[in-house]
Amino acid sequence: MNVRRQVRARRALTTVAIPVGLALALVGCGSSDGDDSPQAADHSKMSATAKESPGGSDTGKPEQGGGSDSSLSESRAGDLTVSIKSAVRDAGGFVTVSGKVTNGGSERWMAEDWIGDEKELGGNASSVAGASLVDKEGKKKYLVLRDTEGHCLCTRFVGGVRGGQTVDWFAQFPAPPEGTTKVDFQVGAMPPASIDISEGE
Predict the structure, then answer these.
(1) DSSP string computed for 82-102
(2) Signal peptide location in the record (predicted)?
(3) Domain spans of the chain, in order of start
(4) CA distance linking residue 90 with residue 43, whole number of Å
(5) What per-residue confidence (pLDDT) applies to 13?
(6) Cα Rg of the chain, angstroms
(7) How far is residue 65's CA from residue 155's CA, in Å, rounded to a whole number?
(8) Per-residue pLDDT at 71
(9) CA torsion through residues 43, 47, 52, 57, sign
(10) What is the pLDDT of residue 183?
(11) pTM of the shown model
(12) pLDDT (average), residues 183-195
């Protein structure tokens, strides 16, 4: 009797142990660290990308810090750099020239030699009033436009430009003939800068 009971008990334990063992094996496979499924691979790639990107995500867009800052022309004299970004012919019969001026020195720059020699421009201190466009082929020189009170249609650098500072500027001139597309921009003691005139909308 004891032998029969022992055999029955072993059979019962075996019947219970096999399903439990299979269940544990399946669970172990499901949570395997070496999962090669497509979902796991995608998740791994996303995690790696997030770690590589400073902001935690990679949008694929270029950084907006520097960007391209193209110029039509640039002129340098000492610590001063003048860049011309655009020269646009408008329907009103004038050309608007614009750009940036950078003071690379340590002292404040007041644009004293940019005012021009004309007495009428005396009230345009620290400005681009003395600038001009020179058409070499047509042998003509175009001065900055001014209002009835002699104020130039241009930027005034109120208080000057501090050392290390870059500021925007513009100046408006009478438009050369439509066939003229290339002129030289001149101001103060800066070397002439050759620029192309584009048509406005």
Answers:
(1) EEEEEEEE-TTSEEEEEEEEE
(2) 1-25
(3) 1-31, 73-199
(4) 56
(5) 46
(6) 38
(7) 27
(8) 81
(9) positive
(10) 97
(11) 0.64
(12) 95
Model confidence at 105: pLDDT above 60: yes
CA distance 97 to 71: 12
For the segment 21-40, what is each residue's pLDDT rounded down to a tens digit? 444 444 444 444 444 544 44
End-to-end CA distance of the chain: 109
Residues 129 and 115: beta-carbon distance below 8 Å: yes
Please state the length of the chain. 201
What DSSP letter does each residue of 36-66 carry, written as one string?
--HHHHHHHHHHHHHHHSTTS----PPPSSS
Sign of the CA dihedral running 41, 45, 51, 57: negative
AA identity, residue 187: V
CATH number for the domain running over 73-199: 2.60.40
**CB contact at 8 A, 154 and 123:** no
For residue 127, which of 107, 168, 155, 108 has the smallest C-alpha distance? 155
From 196, 174, 199, select the one nearest 71 (Cα to Cα).
196
pLDDT at 122: 78
Q: Which residues pair with 193 in a beta bridge?
A: 185
The two three-digit tokens of residue 113, written as one number: 């030699």
Name which of 116, 118, 141 is nearest 126 in CA terms: 116
Q: Tokens 């867009």 identify what position?
A: 61
pLDDT tens digits for range 130-154: 999 999 999 999 999 999 888 999 9
